[in-house]
């Protein structure tokens, strides 16, 4: 068993033709699936995804010449590893070597001085060994494990959905362990260790589970701050790469604009972070180390500040960015297709132009299913597109942005919404209320949840 990030890491480092990871990721126990990486170490995009699907359907029945091979594979005495090389130990050593020699690490000056307690859970997945080793390499004291979730278990006995995106319902045992051990931070990986979730105990005694956008904002600030400003042009060039990640669009876009950096918009906020270029995909192991470094930095270098304190500082400087992300369950793929096609023809046979009877006008529409983007001069999206999935983003005149998309691994119809205030707009409740109002209107008018019997997140 190995973390998913090991596969794209190996493909890129050794120039392999492709990589295949057999994993259900964070899905329920009865699910299974694969993640496929192309020769560049990146998950497949169109047209490769379509061509692979066509080839699978074309060769659904094994060829006659495959009979001997299949007979051998079905023989329990046959050595499946015959003639194959298991690169696990080599890849693991190479991964940890790069982590140890990363110039952001302050192992001696900062990490070894940090004695804060952090509870960790891999959600019954593969992460424990790799987190322990990574924290040791980085100079941190060992994390506190959630005993019932430490070891790999494909039945996921303590969580209905082994997905840290579910929030407190998935982190229940971790919260109990943190309370017992008097720890104020929890970090979690999903079962295949490519995602990272973080929670902090607030002064009220309640627990705050950070959204993907909030963690992305913290990462963005930390990476920007970590570069000594000797050569501002080098910093701008480097950060234009760092910010080209799976981070929130609005906050990092604002940060980049105000700090004079280049920004490239990216794809999702779903707690997946690429904190470097050795793995060209989300990597929950390195992200966990980087987040622990940030926690240590704030505690030791900024007078005991917490992640929530720093997030407030970021909002004070760059403006309050409020976001809500959730989903509906829908097991009917044909219904999903009809819902999205209806949206595309909602206004006189074309895309919608407003919500709430014209109260809120739509400024731009991006459709990553068809490749359409009304904000571009040529009407073509600069982001990767795929006809195999649905993804629509609506940007409104008042700055509200909402994305509707299907999940790549689960029977879910997801939505991501965000509204930003200027630095001098201190009435956060007003921003939140407007965002919620526009979310409700968009969902009711575009998705018609009651009519389509869409089940909301519990």
UniProtKB/TrEMBL annotation:
<dbReference type="InterPro" id="IPR005845">
    <property type="entry name" value="A-D-PHexomutase_a/b/a-II"/>
</dbReference>
<dbReference type="GO" id="GO:0005634">
    <property type="term" value="C:nucleus"/>
</dbReference>
<dbReference type="GO" id="GO:0005975">
    <property type="term" value="P:carbohydrate metabolic process"/>
</dbReference>
<keyword id="KW-0460">Magnesium</keyword>
<dbReference type="InterPro" id="IPR036900">
    <property type="entry name" value="A-D-PHexomutase_C_sf"/>
</dbReference>
<feature type="domain" description="Alpha-D-phosphohexomutase alpha/beta/alpha">
    <location>
        <begin position="1"/>
        <end position="60"/>
    </location>
</feature>
<dbReference type="GO" id="GO:0006166">
    <property type="term" value="P:purine ribonucleoside salvage"/>
</dbReference>
<dbReference type="GO" id="GO:0000287">
    <property type="term" value="F:magnesium ion binding"/>
</dbReference>
<dbReference type="GO" id="GO:0004614">
    <property type="term" value="F:phosphoglucomutase activity"/>
</dbReference>
<keyword id="KW-0413">Isomerase</keyword>
<keyword id="KW-0479">Metal-binding</keyword>
<comment type="similarity">
    <text>Belongs to the phosphohexose mutase family.</text>
</comment>
<dbReference type="InterPro" id="IPR016055">
    <property type="entry name" value="A-D-PHexomutase_a/b/a-I/II/III"/>
</dbReference>
<dbReference type="InterPro" id="IPR016066">
    <property type="entry name" value="A-D-PHexomutase_CS"/>
</dbReference>
<dbReference type="Pfam" id="PF02878">
    <property type="entry name" value="PGM_PMM_I"/>
</dbReference>
<dbReference type="GO" id="GO:0008973">
    <property type="term" value="F:phosphopentomutase activity"/>
</dbReference>
<dbReference type="InterPro" id="IPR005844">
    <property type="entry name" value="A-D-PHexomutase_a/b/a-I"/>
</dbReference>
<dbReference type="Pfam" id="PF02879">
    <property type="entry name" value="PGM_PMM_II"/>
</dbReference>
<feature type="domain" description="Alpha-D-phosphohexomutase alpha/beta/alpha">
    <location>
        <begin position="116"/>
        <end position="201"/>
    </location>
</feature>
<protein>
    <submittedName>
        <fullName>PGM2</fullName>
        <ecNumber>5.4.2.2</ecNumber>
        <ecNumber>5.4.2.7</ecNumber>
    </submittedName>
</protein>
């Amino acid at each position: 068993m190995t973390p998913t990030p090991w596969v794209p890491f190996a493909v890129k480092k050794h120039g392999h033709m492709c990589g295949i990871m057999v994993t259900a990721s964070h899905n329920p126990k009865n699910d299974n699936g694969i993640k496929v990486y192309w020769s560049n170490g990146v998950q497949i995009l169109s047209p490769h995804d379509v061509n692979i699907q066509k080839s699978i359907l074309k060769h659904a029945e094994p060829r006659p010449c495959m009979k001997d091979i299949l007979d051998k594979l079905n023989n329990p005495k046959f050595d499946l590893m015959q003639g194959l090389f298991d690169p696990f130990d080599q890849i693991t050593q190479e991964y940890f070597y790069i982590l140890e020699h990363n110039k952001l690490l302050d192992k001696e000056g900062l990490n070894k001085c940090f004695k804060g307690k952090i509870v960790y859970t891999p959600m019954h997945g593969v992460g424990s060994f790799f987190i322990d080793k990574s924290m040791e390499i980085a100079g941190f004291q060992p994390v506190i494990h959630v005993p019932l979730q430490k070891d790999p278990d494909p039945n996921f006995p303590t969580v209905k959905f082994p997905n840290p995106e579910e929030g407190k319902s998935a982190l229940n045992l971790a919260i109990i362990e943190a309370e017992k051990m008097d720890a104020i931070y929890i970090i979690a990986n999903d079962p295949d260790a490519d995602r990272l979730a973080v929670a902090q105990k607030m002064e009220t005694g309640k627990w705050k589970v950070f959204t993907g956008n909030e963690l992305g904002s913290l990462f963005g600030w930390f990476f920007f701050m970590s570069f000594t400003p000797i050569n501002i042009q080098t910093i701008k060039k480097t950060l234009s790469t760092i910010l080209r990640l799976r981070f929130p669009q609005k906050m990092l876009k604002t940060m980049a604009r105000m700090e004079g950096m280049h920004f490239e918009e990216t794809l999702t906020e779903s707690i997946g972070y690429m904190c470097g270029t050795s793995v060209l995909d989300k990597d929950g192991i390195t992200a966990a180390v980087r987040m622990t470094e940030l926690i240590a930095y704030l505690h030791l270098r900024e007078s005991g500040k917490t992640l929530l304190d720093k997030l407030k500082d970021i909002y004070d400087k760059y403006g309050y960015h409020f976001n809500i992300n959730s989903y509906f369950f829908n097991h009917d793929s044909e219904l999903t297709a009809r819902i999205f096609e209806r949206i595309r023809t909602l206004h006189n046979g074309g895309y919608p132009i407003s919500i709430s009877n014209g109260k809120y006008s739509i400024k731009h529409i991006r459709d990553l299913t068809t490749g359409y983007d009304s904000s571009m001069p040529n009407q073509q999206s600069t982001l990767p597109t795929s006809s195999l999935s649905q993804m629509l983003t609506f940007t409104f005149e008042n700055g509200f942005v909402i994305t509707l998309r299907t999940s790549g691994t689960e029977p879910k119809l997801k939505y991501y919404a965000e509204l930003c205030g200027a630095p001098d707009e201190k009435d956060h409740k007003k921003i939140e209320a407007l965002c919620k109002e526009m979310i409700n209107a968009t969902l009711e008018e575009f998705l018609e949840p009651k009519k389509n019997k869409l089940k909301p997140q519990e």
